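Students often ask why we bother encoding 3D structure as a string. The short answer is that it lets us treat folding as translation between two languages. Here is a chain of 130 residues written in the first language.
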Amino acid sequence: MRARSALCALGVFLLLPVPSGRAEIPRVRSVVVDATAYNSLPEQTGDDPTLSASGHRLEPGMRAIAVSPDLAKLGLVHGRKVRIDGLHGEWVVRDRMPERWKRRIDVYMGEDVDAARAFGRRRVRIHWQD
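And here it is in the second language, the structure alphabet:
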């Protein structure tokens, strides 16, 4: 207290931010996309089927998705958590798709080709927070 009084006597004041009382509320976004599924197999990926195009290692059991570049521009960046209508739990953006795809996600199904085929292609709504 003595130091503050001495500073005030010298005409030095400290300006501290005052909380506004309002918490920053994250914005929830959603969009309808075409969804397909993919596996960690050389014929579906590259030479190293566990390495995503974005440099992440994929392992069976992970809840990972790849997104088209236009979705990345909307905020679906690497590491973003999303919810997918019709699928359980949170999924994480861990891969990217080629430029030719628009409004599309690819759901990672590990090495389970039957699960990927059963998933097929469908329209889903995805949700995430900015």
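Translate back mentally: The chain has three helices and six strands. Keep this in mind for the problem set.
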